[in-house]
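re: the backbone from monday

yeah here it is again, tokenized this time
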């Protein structure tokens, strides 16, 4: 199944909703980042579907084919680059495959995997979001004429950030799994970067550096865990 069910006429893009009639699959483990994508799609006229890991994304893709796939590079069960590589080789091909991340090196990884484009987190501009998708659509699907964009910044729901903190707290409580510790460190660094939570971002990056350098990490884990718990204790964490 594609993003059209074939039973009803496809909505046509408009000047204010240039992605009308399209479906965007967002493969993203952060609820805060996904809420930003939801708002971007809403303002652009696109439908959104969400998968929070590679396994979930592959299940979605067995059932339907979206117009656009936006894939985070750091996922709990592997690298989003794996999925990007699969998507660009699959037939029929998803029209637009974009990578996304807050890591500085991730853009190169996404393009090496075959991505059409890249969205650096945080994605707050409706115009940037629309332009990156439209630029890579087949010419026959690109909206014609002028577009009208109210480009006030996207503001995701702060409670979605709290959901991310709850997820991180669950992972941090299992301190015997080094792979998941590396995952949650990257996860928190990216989420904190998107939310402008510089203290939490610095703590996550310090833990990552300690692990990469083979140094003791007990104190860094305790610091990071404490900051996560502080944000869970405050209903509006940001």
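seq for it, each position gets an aa:
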């Amino acid at each position: 199944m594609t993003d059209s069910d074939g039973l009803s006429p496809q909505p046509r893009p408009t000047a204010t909703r240039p992605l009308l009639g399209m479906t965007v699959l967002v493969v993203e483990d952060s609820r805060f980042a996904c809420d930003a994508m939801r708002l971007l799609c809403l303002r652009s006229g696109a439908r959104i579907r969400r998968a929070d890991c590679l396994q979930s994304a592959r299940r979605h893709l067995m059932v339907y084919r979206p117009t656009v796939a936006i894939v985070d590079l750091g996922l709990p069960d592997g690298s989003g680059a794996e999925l990007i590589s699969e998507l660009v080789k699959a037939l029929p091909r998803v029209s637009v495959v974009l990578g996304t991340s807050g890591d500085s090196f991730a853009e190169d990884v996404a393009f090496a995997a075959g991505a059409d484009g890249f969205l650096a987190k945080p994605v707050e501009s409706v115009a940037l979001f629309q332009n990156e998708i439209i630029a890579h659509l087949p010419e026959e699907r690109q909206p014609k004429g002028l577009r009208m964009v109210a480009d006030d910044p996207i503001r995701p729901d702060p409670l979605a950030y709290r959901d991310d903190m709850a997820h991180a707290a669950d992972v941090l409580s299992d301190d015997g799994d080094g792979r998941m510790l590396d995952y949650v460190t990257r996860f928190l660094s990216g989420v904190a970067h998107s939310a402008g939570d510089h203290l939490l971002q610095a703590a996550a990056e310090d833990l990552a550096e300690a692990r990469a350098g083979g140094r003791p990490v007990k104190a860094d884990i305790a610091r990071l865990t404490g900051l996560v718990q502080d944000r869970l204790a405050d209903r509006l964490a940001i």
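The mean pLDDT is 91. The first strand starts at residue 23 and ends at 27.
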